[in-house]
C-alpha cells in the first residue's frame, strides 16, 4: 500500500517537473530566475502574477508567486497558494507614511489606515521611488485602486496667483521619471484610473511619485477624506501588453468609458468657490493637463465611436446645467452637460443667444479641448452620410460635435457622436491655466456659475466592425 502511494507521489512530481520545464516565454524578467522549492531542488515554477485570497485587508489583490521562504525574506504577505501548491501568492504593501524605495513588482502603495481614510494631523510629503527590478523594464503602470486627496483649491477653474500653474495647490501627486518624462500634477479623486510612466533604456532610470498633503483649518482629514491604494507594475520592453510610446493610458477593450482626471465625485463633495473653503472639490476639471489615452484596435474593428456619457463611472446620471442669469444668452456659461464641460464659454466666437450652446471645432478650441484626430461629427457606419466629408481634430464648446442646423434654436442643441476611423485610436485631453470664461491668468476671472463647476468630460466609446464602415 505504502509503495503504491510513494510511486504515485513520484509520478505526480515528475509530471509537475515536465510541465514546468515546457513553459512558454516568461511573463516578466524575474521569472527567468525561477526559484527552487526548498524540499526538492528539482521543482521550479515561474514567479508570475497570482491572485490573493479575498480575506486580505481591502479585498483580493494581485501578488507574485514565490516559495514560502522567499516571500518571508522579501517581507511580503503570503495570501493563498500558487504553482499547484508549491508556492504562495506573495503580496507586497508599503503602508508607511514616509519616503520609500520600491523594487518589488506589484507593490501596493497605501495610506497607513487603509481601508480607512488617513487621520494624519500633520502635513505629509512622501516620495515613492520605483527602481527597475531589471535593466529591460520600459514602463511602470500605476493602477489607482482607490485614490482621493484634496482637490483643486477652488471650483472657479482660475489660478489663485499670477505665478500659479495649477489649481492643485493644496494636496497633489506629482508623477515623473528621472529621464525627464513628467505626467504632471494631479489631485482630487482618481479611483479606477490608471497611468503609464515611460522609462528610458538606462538601467538607472526610475519613476517617482511625490505625494503632498496639507493640514489646515480648511483641509482637515475629515474634509479631504484622503485615502490611497496604488498598484505599481513593472513592464518589460519586450512585453506584448506594453503600452505604445506616448500613451499615458492604454485601453484594450472594445467598449468602455474615458474620463478626464478628477471626474470621479466623492459622496458629499460639493463645489467650493473660494480658496478658504475648498476642502475637497472632486468632480472638477484640472488645469494644465495633457493626457493621451490610447485604444488598442481589436481584430476586425476599423473605427471608434464616441458619445457623451449618459451616466458617470458611478452610475450617476449626467444632467444639463443652466448658466446664471443673462450670462446664458451671451455665450458665457450657457446650457452645458456635466459629461461635456470643455470651455463652456463660447465668447468671443459665439455671441448670439441662438447659437450659444453649440459645439466648437479645431481653431476655435485653443484653451481646453479634447483631441480626436481625423474624426468627424456623426455615427460610425454606412449611415454617416455626408458627415464624413468634414474632418475635425479638436472639440470644445457647450456640446460635443454639435453644429447649428438651419432654423435650429438653442433648446434643441444636443451633443452628437464622433467617429474616428484613422489609426492609431487615441483621445488627448488638454487644459490651460486660464478660466473657461476667457480670463487670463493675470485676471483671475471667476466662473459665474459657482453652484456647478466645469467637470471635464466623460465619453462612452465603442469599436465598430470594418464591414460597417
Structural class assignment: mainly beta
The total tally of domains equals 3
How big is the Rg? 25 Å
Total helical segments:
3
Q: Which strand-content bin applies to the residues?
A: 25-35%
Identify the overall geometry. Answer: globular
Average of the residue pLDDT scores: 81
Give the N-terminus to C-terminus distance in angstroms.
Answer: 69 Å
- What percent of residues adopt helix (DSSP H or I)? under 10%
Largest sheet features? 10 strands, mixed
Quick summary:
The chain has 469 residues and is mainly beta. It has three helices and 27 strands. A hairpin with a 4-residue loop joins strand 11 (172-177) and strand 12.
Structural topology:
Elements: H1 2-21, E1 35-36, E2 44-45, E3 49-51, E4 62-66, H2 68-73, E5 77-82, E6 87-94, E7 100-102, E8 107-110, E9 124-130, E10 137-148, E11 172-177, E12 182-186, E13 194-198, E14 207-213, H3 221-224, E15 227-236, E16 249-251, E17 255-259, E18 290-295, E19 301-308, E20 320-321, E21 336-337, E22 359-361, E23 369-377, E24 392-397, E25 418-420, E26 425-430, E27 458-465
Parallel strand pairs: 6-8, 7-9, 16-18
Antiparallel strand pairs: 1-2, 3-4, 4-6, 5-6, 8-15, 9-14, 10-13, 10-15, 11-12, 11-14, 17-27, 18-26, 19-25, 19-27, 20-21, 22-24, 23-24, 23-25, 23-26
Could you characterize what this model shows?
The chain is built from 3 helices and 27 strands. The protein has about 475 residues and is mainly beta. It folds into 3 domains: about 1-90, no CATH class; about 95-240, Jelly Rolls; about 300-469, no CATH class. The strands form 5 sheets. Strands 16, 17, 18, 19, 22, 23, 24, 25, 26 and 27 form a 10-stranded mixed sheet that branches. Strands 3, 4, 5, 6, 8, 10, 13 and 15 form an 8-stranded mixed sheet that branches. A hairpin with a 4-residue loop joins strand 11 (about 170-175) and strand 12 (about 180-185). The protein is globular. Mean pLDDT is about 80; it is low at about 1-10, about 15-30, about 30-40 and about 405-410.
